[in-house]
Each structure stands twice: as structure tokens, then as C-alpha cells.
Design a protein that fits this description.
The complex is a heterodimer of chains A (439) and B (495).
Chain A (H helix, E strand, L loop, with lengths): L5 E5 L3 H12 L3 E5 L7 H5 L2 E2 L4 E2 H14 L3 E4 L2 E9 L2 E8 L14 H5 L3 E3 L8 E3 L1 E2 L11 E2 L5 H5 L4 H5 L12 E7 L1 E4 L3 E3 L16 E3 H8 L20 E8 L15 H15 L4 E6 L9 H10 L4 E4 L4 E4 L6 E7 L4 E7 L1 E6 L1 E3 L3 H8 L26 E3 L9 H26 L1
Parallel strand pairs in A: 1-2, 1-13, 2-5, 13-24, 15-22, 16-17, 16-22, 17-18
Antiparallel strand pairs in A: 3-4, 6-7, 7-12, 8-9, 10-11, 14-23, 19-20, 20-21
Helix pairs in contact in A: 1-3, 1-11, 7-8, 8-9
Chain B lengths: L8 H13 L1 H5 L8 H5 L1 H5 L6 H10 L1 H4 L13 H5 L6 H14 L6 H15 L3 H9 L9 H20 L12 E5 L3 H12 L3 E5 L8 H4 L8 H13 L3 E3 L10 H5 L6 E4 L5 E2 L12 E3 H9 L9 E5 L3 H12 L4 E5 L11 H9 L3 E3 L2 E9 L2 E15 L5 E5 L5 E4 L2 E4 L3 E2 L31 E3 L2 H4 L4 H19 L8
Parallel strand pairs in B: 1-2, 1-4, 2-3, 4-16, 6-14, 7-8, 7-14, 8-9
Antiparallel strand pairs in B: 5-15, 10-11, 11-12, 11-13
Classes of the chains: A alpha/beta (439), B alpha/beta (495).
Chain lengths: 439, 495
Amino acid sequence: MKESGSVLVIGGGVAGIQAALDLADRGFRVYLVEETPSIGGRMAQLDKTFPTLDCSICILAPKMIECYRHPNITLLTYSEVEKVRGSAGNFTVEITRKPRFVDEAKCTGCGTCSQKCPIIVPNEFDMLLGDRKAIYMPLPQAVPRVTTIDKDSCLYFTRSVCKICQKLCQAEAVDFDQKPEKINLNVSAIIVATGFSLLNPSVINEYGYGRYKNVITSLELERLANASGPTGGHVTRPSDGKIPDKVAFIQCVGSRGLGRGVSYCSSACCMYATKEAILIKEHKPKSEVFIFYLDLRASGKGFQEFINRAKENWGVLYIRGRPGEIIEDPTTKDLIIFCEHTVRGEVRRLEVDMVVLCPAFIPRESNNKLSEKLRVKLDEYGFFKAEDASLVPVDSNIPGIFTCGCCQGPKDIPESVAQASGAAARAVEVITLTARREG
Amino acid sequence: MSRFPQGGPQTVRILKELSKRSLDAKKLAYCDECGACTGSCPVVRIFPRHFNPRVFFNKLFLEFANVSTETDLWLCMMCYRCHSRCPHGLKLPEIFLSLREMVIEQGYLQDVPSKLQEILEILREEIPLSLVYTWLCLRPGEEEPKRDKFDTAILDALQRHIMDYKRKEVAPSPKTTKDKIAIIGSGPAGLTAAWELVRRGFIVTVFEALSEPGGMLRVGIPEYRLPKEVLDAEIEHIKDLGVEIRTNTAIGKALLFNDLLGEERYTAIFIATGAHRSRKLRIEGEDMEGVVHALGLLRQVNLHKQPRLGEKVGIVGGGNTAMDAARTAQRLGAKKVNILYRRSREEMPANPLEVEEAERSGVEIHFLLTPRKILGKNKQVVGAECIRMKLGSPDESGRRRPIPIEGSEFTIELDTAIIAIGESPDTSFLPNEIKVTEWNTIEVDPITLETSLPGVFAGGDVVSGPASVVEAIDAGKRAAISINRYLNGARVKFP
């Protein structure tokens, strides 16, 4: 099935992937633009999903591959949107493909180049906990399955020596002379699905993130718990590699405050902290896991039951209260949490091996630039604004441009996917309406 | 939990009145009762049974009349730590202050002396500096004219307690062990530890570099905030218990640190020397006549010297010391007192209450500017060249970094420049075995306060950098517990 009309999807996370697949399956042409070398986004970084405890990458990877193989989808990874002109039904978009210095058509993804590359740098995909090479595959399930050269750390680009990868590549895919490439597209509608960032919890300085090694963020924990992560799936303490016996989660770090951080609720933390607590229990059933919460917001299908299971079957301990301070024992690197158990009105000192902070979801820094290019409004926090949040939640103020997923506010995966399908349906409407007008 | 007033009509009326007095009281409606205030409060750590700000403010909404007699109301020491931890940035100390005034002015608390008696008894169980504590906490008589009813009631009651206290005789505490403990520094941390340890039967000697004991309580806090008579009475009592205080004995000069453990045979040492070294601006002209350091000025005034200041005084810095220096300069006869601070009001480290009081007494605070050069004639300060600043991205302290705006230089006229940009500890007298951080503070185990040298403990400002009196008292208490454990051969870890 082939229909006239095409859509640009910005962002290759789960929302972008879902929107692209929906549209492509209906026969429309889709251009999926992703800033990083591979699609997958945040969901690819997660170990499990709630409330079903499915392996995250196992349910996402088939969709990623489908995007790659779908005849109606053009994947533009490692690319950025430069300019957007026109209106609904007829947008002209200029896209820059950043040079990855590896020919996508030739590379077989064998990985020999990465094995032999002498430069080791922290891996962004593993939240800088693991390493990668200067020529790398960002994640094992990368789509497209090709390597990319990181210009900033590659020996050839920094000191014009080496070129080992080029010598070893049997497919002759490494091309140091690749230049940025400009692509002009004509699309009928645009779907924005650029996702979110996490607040750097070092602003909440009493929790010591950045100062204390064993205070980590929830996303770092996801990578530690993941079998393809830096520790091979062992949840270990960054300070000494010991498997922790006592772990505490702290919710609302930077969320729900009128003072520091952001004032909104980050919506997914209650559930993912519960999920991560279960993961730790699965890895080491005898460990003790505490979750410091303010309110448990389990507003989704099967969510409350999930929390009940965590309490009953797994013995996760929920403490209502926000810790006032964390201090580190300089010799053992254990952490001591000063807190009030507000239900009991008891002041406590809790000693734990590791603390996991659940930082606020914040808008991406690039939202400002992108919103200017698209002439789309942002809300007071910097998320993309829905024209009418209650009745047409995926429409932006510009007809023909839709937003979905976490780029318009904190969300969990099911909600993002639902919005993505909604945005795809709205895009189809634009295409058919404009086609009818013209025809 | 609903934050609408749940008490009767009286509670509703009182809460309205309270929000008029303190803007932050209105914000209490947003409180999620997360307990970050209680979890971080140093007062809670000293008096866990008597103080819980979260519970207190929760009760406030239920029935005001019950709250007016709670002891919680009178224990907050205004360190503002809760304010820095509160997700909504509530200024709980100010609400406490307004409430205290209201309770007395509107007659909810009739018998102030007996209430104070009750508070003092709670305090005396745990700390030696109960009167100093109440004085600093209730802040009576700081303002002219007096805040009428509140001040009169509190002052009368306090004076009476001081008289009683002076009259009370203290029997020396029996010595039950031969262990000798040296405490370096006679500030709030040192005195608290000495008091705790002497009551446990140890022989305690406190070494003080200055001519009078008290540390920052003596030389850092101006007379108008804490009458020295109160401090003297309390130090007298600690001495009566059997603590020996050797003044004019600076460790490193009169006596070497290593001798304490060696010849003098002390079995444990507690270092509580505070942070007395003023930081320098590191700009041109700083060594001229007429440039003084705030701490030096406060020390001179407190040790009954009369330093001469000019008519136009400029103070550089935005901390509590800057505020104290400004108001002291006013009392010394300066006509015009200006504070120059390089960031904006939001980032000011000074206690908001102090800032407000300084402004009310006529001190002018200028934000977003810093001196570049101190100008002089014949080695005498005549002015300063200043530059305007703007705020950039947050630095590691979480506050926004000031960036100079080039080309915005201008000069101001000054007779005296007072530098108050922070204090740091002096750790030069310590042996190399004791690890010191890059900020010149002593590295200790955060729970036991033991340094890298076994048997030597440290606490207070010398560990944390400049902080509040109550935090020093807390450190003194914790050190005493650890030293007791150490000398009794118990595990020092996790008391």
C-alpha cells in the first residue's frame, strides 16, 4: 500500500518509533530524524518496564528493527533539523546529516574497528559508567547497526595519527573525509518526539550527588542492572564494586518544589523506583530496599497492584519522608541518611550502602532552538506546549505540527506510546485534508 | 493531607493574622510534610523528644490554642538549615519568630517566666549554654525601639533567670577516671564537649588562645546580640563543675600540639578552634590604612577596645559577619554604612533575618557589585573602584556565579573598608598526621568526629567551615560521646 504524503518525525525514542511505524504501516512516507547515532532513546537504556517487568530492549528492539527495514521509513540518524518553512500540508525541511565517518551502506557492523581502537572514553549510553571506544556502536542493539567515529576523541582527528580502524575494515567503510550532508525534504506534517532530560541532582547538594560515589541516579541504576550494561548486570557500588545489602531510593529529587528544582510532579518516578527496587531484590533477595516517598502516585492500569506486590511479595520498605541530609563515611563509603519517618513522627538515622536518587524530568536544552525553528510554543518550564491540553493534547499551536511523548511533559512509556499513535492519526488527518483541498 | 485550617474559627483568624506578619506563613499551605526540615535540623538532633518542626506546623493547622503552649515553639535557633533543604524554600525560622511574638502579644501565653523556666530545664538536660541558647534564639532587645510587649516580657523573664542562675551554686563533678582530655578552643563546641566530659568524670582542660574564653560567642557576636554577662555566667558554671580553662594559651605557640599527647599526657584531644581567619580579597590596596577585617573589628570591640572608623564605611561581603560588622560600625559612629555584595539578594549567605534588621537600622545594601581596587592617598583609604556584576550559571555551591560586566567600573568614596568575605579555620598548628581538606578544614569521620589521628577528635567550624552556634553545640555533644567511647575502650564507630 502506498499513499501520497509524507511526515517528518523528530526524535527516535519509543514515541517517535511508534508514530513512524503507525504512519508507515498506513502507507505514508516517513522520515525519522534522530540526533544520536542510533534510534532507541531512553527506553533502550532501561532494563525492565513497569508494571509487567518486561525486558525493555526486548520489546523495543523489534520495533527499532522494523523501523530500519520498513520500506516506507527513511532513517536519518546522527542528523539534525536545520530549517523548517511552509505550513500544514507543505513543509520544506532542511536536515543536516552529521558525518559519522563510516559509510552506512558498506559497514556490516562486525565491530572489528571498535575492538582494535586504542582510545577509550566513557559511554554516554551507559550514563558514563561504562566505556566505549572512539569508533563505537552506542548500544549492542543499535539501529542502524553501524559504527560511528567520535570526532572529539578519535586519534586521527585530534593528533592525525592511527587510522587503525580504516586499515582493519574489510568492508572499507571507514571514510575520514566524510562531510556534513544537507538534505531537503518536503513533508505534509511534522511530529516532534524529542523526549526529556534528567535534572542533574547535584543542585540538591545535601544529597551529595557528584561528591559521594555511592549516590547514583535512577538511570545509572538501570544501566547497572542491565545485562548489557557496564557491570554485566550486577548491581554494584561504584566505590568498591561490592553488591549492596541496603539500598535507599529518594523520590522527588528536584520535583514538586516551589524553591529549588521544578514545581511539577515527574509522574513516572514512583513506579520506576518500585520497579528498580524489585530489580535489586531479584538480583539479591536478601538485600533491604527502602523507598523514601512523599505520595505514591500510582495512577495507571495495574500500577497500584504493582506497588502492592512490591510490598507483599518482595518486602520493599516504603518510608514517607524526604531525607534532610546524607553524609558519607569516608573510609567505608557507606552513606548515612538523616530523615524523619513522617508517618511515625520519628527522627531516624539510616545507614545504607547505596542511595539512588530519582531526579526530576526536565525539558531538553535543545527545545528552545527547535521550538524557534518550528515556531512552536513552549510552556513555562520549556516543554512543548499543547494548544489545548485537554481536548487535542498532541496538537501544537502550528497546524500540521504535533508533539508527543516526554517532550511535552513527564510521562511513562504506555502514555508516550498512546500519544505517539494519537499524533500519527492527527498527522494522517492533515495529509488527507490537504490532499483533498488540492485534489 | 488538606492544609486548610482544620481548627475552629479562632485558628482560622490566627492563621490569617500570621500570614500578615510573615509572608512565608501563607506558603505553609503548600507544605507536603516531607520532613526535610526535621530531618536536617541540628536542634532536632540535640532535642529529639522536644522539637519537631514538621509536626509543630502540622498541629498549627489543627488547633492554634494547643500550639501556643508547646515547647517546640521556643527551641528553634534560626540556623536556616531547614530553609535551604525545604523544597518550597519556606523560611520556618521567621514563622517561628512571628508566632512567638503573637503568642505573647495576644496573651495566649500569660506566664512567660515559667514557660522560660520549662524551656531552660529542657535545655539544661542536654547542653551547658542554656541561657546563651535562649538569648540567641529569642533575640530580645535587639531593636530600638523595643518590640514592646514581647521584648519586655522576654527580657524580664530572662533577667530573672540570669540572676537565679548566678546565685545557684554548682558542686564540682566527681572525678572517676584518670583520663585527661585536652580541648582546644573554648567556643560553643569546646565548652559543650568539656561540660559533657567533666560530668562523665574525666579531667578536662580547655585551652584558649585569647585572653577570655567563649570563642566566637565572645569575639564574633556583638554585645547587642548577646550580652557578655550571660556568657560569663555560663562559663563560670562550667568552671565550677571542674573544667580548667587556660586562657592565653595558643596551641602551637605557648604549647605544642605534640606535647599534649606526649609530655602533658592527655589521652584524648578535641579540636574545636573554629574558623577565625578572615579571607582576603586579593586586590590592589588591601594593605592600606583603613582596610580592616570584619572579624578583627568585632574582636576588638568585644574585647573592649575602641577601634576608630571613618564616617563613610563600606563593607564587602554578604554573610552574617558582614551584617554584624555593619551594625557595629553604626554603633561606632559611622554616618553612612554601605554593604557591597557581588551577587543578588537571593544568593546572600546571611540569615535573611539579619539582613532585614540591618536594613531596618539604616544600612544600605548594594547588590551585584564588587571592588576591583582600593584607592588611597598617602596610604590612607579614600575610596574604592567597583565593577558591576551579572549572574551566570550556577557553580558548585548551587548559587549563580557572578560575572563582571567589563566597562561598568565606577568609584565610590570611603574612609574605611571592612572585608567580610568569609572565614576559614587556621590549621597551621596541627601535626601532619591530621588530614586537612583543600578548604583548610579538618577531615573527620562524619559520625564519630574522629580525625585521621586516633584519639584526636575535631568538630564545629574547624570541620564544617563557618556555621551556626547550634551546629557547634551538636558537634561538641557528639565528640563527647565518641571520646567517652574511645576512652572506655568501646567501639568508637556509630555511637
